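Dear colleagues,

I hope this message finds you well. In preparation for our joint manuscript, I am sending the Solute-binding protein family 3/N-terminal domain-containing protein (Eshraghiella crossota DSM 2876) sequence together with its predicted structure, so that both groups work from identical material. I would be grateful if you could confirm receipt.
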Amino acid sequence: MKLKKLIAVGLSAVLALSVFTACGKSGNSSAKKTAKVIDINLTEEEYAFGVGKDQPELLDQVNAFIKEIKENGELDKICNKYFGDGEPVAVKSAELDESKDQLVVATNAAFEPFEYTKGDSYAGIDMEIAKALADKLGKELVIQNMSFDAVCLSVGQHKCDLAIAGLTIKEDRKEYVAFSDPYYQASQRLVVASDNTEFDNCKTVKDVEAILNTKDSSSSVGFQNGTTGQFYCEGDESFGFAGFKMKNTGYANGSLAVQDLINGGLKYVIIDAAPAQFITESINKMQ
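The corresponding C-alpha cells are as follows:
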C-alpha cells in the first residue's frame, strides 16, 4: 500500500534532538543526512490484543469484535486513514475512575502509525480500534501510556484490561496475557542512512541477512526495547532468530533509534515496517 504523508506528530523528543544536531559535523554543515528503509520483510508476525487471563468473557467479546470489523470493512477504513487517503481521528482518554464502567487499555504511544500522541489526545490505528471496541462494549475508554516492556505486565497485574500496542503474538508473553485473534500482519524492516549502498542489490531476506552476518561488534544496530526488532537482533529461540554479532543498542522508541542513526551513532536500525516508513519520512522532513 502506498503510504500517505505523515503529519509531524508524536515526535517531539526527536524534534528536540534535531534542534541540537541540525548543524551536523563541522565542515559539512550544509549536508542533509537522511535515512531510508530497505523494502524487504525480515520477519513475518501477527499483531493481537493482550487480554487479562482472568477475563475470558472479554476475550470472547474482543475476538467477536475483530471478526466483525474485518468482515464489515471497518478495519480497512481505519487503516486507510494512515496508509491511504483517509483522515485520522484523535481519540480522547477518560480519567481512570473505578466507580465507572471503563475499558482500560495499556499502550506505548510512540509507535506511529499504530499509537502516538496528538496534543492531549491519542491517534493511530490501534487507538481508533480501541475506541471502536469501547463504544461497542458500551464502556468509557481509558488509555494508559507506558513503556512497551510494561504493557503486558500491567494487564497481568490487573492494572489494565487490554494491551493494545502493536503487540506481536509471542509465547513468553502468554505468561501475562491471553492473546486475541490476530488483526494485523506485520514484519521487521532494516533502516540505514540514505547514502548506504550495501543492500542495493538485495532481493530477499537471505540476501540482507548474509550481509548483516558479516558484521561484528564494530558495527552497531538499534531497535525499540522489548520489541521483535530486539529479539531479531539479539536472537530469540522461540521466534527462531539466530541474532547477529553486532553491538546492540535499545531505545525507548524507534524514532530515537532512527535519529541516532542519522546522527552517526548507529549503522543500522531494525523496527516494524509501518513505523519504520512513517518515522523515516517524518524525520527526513525535519533535516
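For the figure legend, we might mention the following. The chain is about 30% helix and 20% strand. The radius of gyration is 19 Å.

With kind regards,
E.M.
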